[in-house]
User: What shape does this take?
Amino acid sequence: MFYCLVSQTDGSTRSYLPVQKLRNLARAQNLDNKTPLVMAVCHPSITEDIVQKLIFMIEIQPRDMAIHFLVNESSEEMEILQIQFLMAIGQIGRRSFTDYQHLSPIVKSKACDFHTRQQLLHFPCRYDNVSLLKWLLEQPLSNNNSTKSKDNVSMLEGRDHAGYTPLLTAVFYGSSKCVKYLLQVSN
Assistant: This one.
């Protein structure tokens, strides 16, 4: 279905209208403010390719009939993508998957900076999803040459909007598996 919708809006010529339709499709929200990216990450048949395509579609900036990317775009554009990443991980944090590889384009994205990565850890802690927590901590941090254990410690120090660390979030929500794992990792 995804590829059918995309092929309908992605014409053979790269004119303004098809590009704008792709962007609008990727940024559309349902009544619960969920975007296609947020909805797609939880589907059992989701692939890394589809997640990458959705991120690409969100990043499209049609200006003067040309395509520009989010490399040096405004902070507002970066925030849109970061919020979608947080919502997507929040959705998937509620479910248990055996493999989270389809989320790789999210954590590898330029919009998923160190602070955003720290915020992502709070969702698995909220829903006691220790497998997602482990996966997120195993992902390499881009533009960071420090050791893996040092990365984990700095990631675990990230505070959410209420000032909680991931460990405090796990304790607050009674996520016993995540509390146990975080105590092991922090030592």
Observations:
- The chain has a mean pLDDT of 80.
- DSSP finds twelve helices and two strands in the chain.
